[in-house]
Amino acid sequence: MYVRRYIPSGTLLAFPDTVRGVLRPSFATLALVALGIALAGCVSTRIAEVGTLPNGERLITLVVSENRRVVDRECQDVPALGPVLGCQTSRALELPNGHAVRAVKIVRYTDTLPSRMAFEIDAHELCHAIAAVQSIEDPCHGVDHGIVESWALPRLQRVP
Q1: DSSP codes, 100-113
Q2: Cβ–Cβ < 8 Å for 52, 123
Q3: Closest of 154, 160, 144 to residue 48, by C-alpha
Q4: Which residues share a beta bridge with 65?
């Protein structure tokens, strides 16, 4: 009896071949499935520090996380009844010119992270809000000059 041998050909990225009516997935297919399963369980955190003050400290720190443990760790010193889904803390700083300023940290839990661009805009606008309620010069354009630098910027067109 003659049995035909299976000789693989093509690339690993090609669609799976069938051998004797049985689907035989390629290595790439298995790797993609494994990667999808692994990433489905991942949680992420975004952290931004904006508004460099004259003493080198940052005016605002924004932490947004899908991980409740991150929120619990960042908010551990905040008194609360029940589960903590977010918090804000501030600390007093003295600038070299003698003015007092409060640096603020905002932490919040989310079910889905905002895009990098939306997160960057949120942090930047929060910086302006915190600076506006204090008697300090707005430090929010010091490093990035107010330009969104996230990965999504190339898809936007500037309006003259």
Answers
A1: EEEEEEEEEE-SSP
A2: no
A3: 144
A4: 45, 109
Task: Show Cβ contacts of residue 124 under 8 Å, excluding neighbours closer than 6 positions.
Answer: 50, 140, 144, 146, 148
Cβ 68 vs Cβ 111: under 8 Å: no
- What are the tokens at 109? 């839990």
- Kindly give the confidence (pLDDT) of every residue in the chain, 160 residues in length, as a single tens digit, with 9 standing for 90 and above: 555 554 555 444 444 444 444 445 566 555 555 555 455 456 699 999 999 999 999 999 999 999 999 999 999 988 888 889 999 999 999 988 888 999 999 999 999 999 999 999 999 999 999 999 998 889 998 765 556 666 544 444 444 4
Coil, strand or helix at 159: coil
Is residue 1 helix, strand or coil? coil
**Predicted structure pTM score:** 0.67
Amino acid type, 157: Q
